Amino acid sequence: MKWGVLVGGQGTNLRALLEAGIEVVVVVSHRQGVGALDIAARWGVPAIVLLPRDYPDRAAYGEALRSILADYRVEAVALAGFLRWLDPKTVAAYKNRILNVHPSLLPAFPGLDGVDQALAGGVRWTGVTVHVVDEGHDTGPIVAQCPVPVAPDDDPSRLAARVHAVEHRLFPAVVKAFDAGLIRVDGRRVEVAGAAGAFPDHFLWGGGEAKQ
């Protein structure tokens, strides 16, 4: 499956996807000069900067994004640090084929700064969620989650490092399962099928149980 990866930061999740052998055919960034663009260049993946300020509104930006994805014959989309809200037409064009990785156990702590929100909330556990993107903000069906403990002496840097380490394992695992046709989305329910032991035990998969 041909993937387009949307980025806006250092690109560590992009690198994790590439190292896992995901077929990334184009990278699109909403920011200039970010590390993700350097990673794309090192891997020989075409990278395009699409700046929101160059478009009059979200709909026009979405149209330009869809044009790029169509040019590269993208079949599915992964959001990896892309801090833009996709417009409804883009979500519809890739319905149930857009995955996002988020640094919390959704629905807790949606939006920006999930790690900071967890620390401010005084929780003992946070984690990572991979979900299907819908028209809301981090509201799409949950595909997989992995918990991360919050230590009493954690600061944002220490907790973020552990959360990112989990992201780099969970996101590629989900994308590879999606690639293999093992993930089915039915409304709010996500089913993950596969042989027993195909997925790490500490990943909590979907709204349904893993099936043989």
Short description:
The protein is an alpha/beta fold. 32% of the residues lie in helices and 24% in strands. Helix 1 packs parallel to helix 6 (156-179).
Which residue ranges are poorly predicted, with pLDDT under 50 across at least 5 consecutive positions? 207-212
Q: Spatial order of the strands in the main sheet?
A: 3-2-1-4-5-6-7-10
**Secondary-structure element sequence?**
EHEHEHEHEHEEHEEE
Rg calculated over all Cα atoms:
17 Å
Mean pLDDT: 91
- Beta-strand residue percentage: 15-25%
Shape verdict:
globular
CATH topology of the largest domain: Rossmann fold
Helical residue percent band:
25-40%
Helix-and-strand structural type = alpha/beta
For the sheet with most strands, the description reads: 8 strands, mixed
Task: Kindly describe this structure.
The structure is a single chain. By secondary structure, the chain is of the alpha/beta class. The chain has two domains: 1-95, Formyl transferase, N-terminal domain (Rossmann fold); 101-212, Rossmann fold (3-Layer(aba) Sandwich), CATH 3.40.50. 32% of the residues lie in helices and 24% in strands. It is built from six helices and ten strands; from the N terminus they run βαβαβαβαβαββαβββ. It has helices at 12-19, 35-42, 58-71, 88-93, 114-121, 156-179; strands spanning 3-7, 24-29, 47-49, 76-80, 98-102, 125-132, 142-149, 183-186, 189-192, 204-205. Strand 1 (3-7), helix 1 (12-19) and strand 2 (24-29) form a beta-alpha-beta unit. It starts with a strand and ends in a 7-residue tail after the last strand.
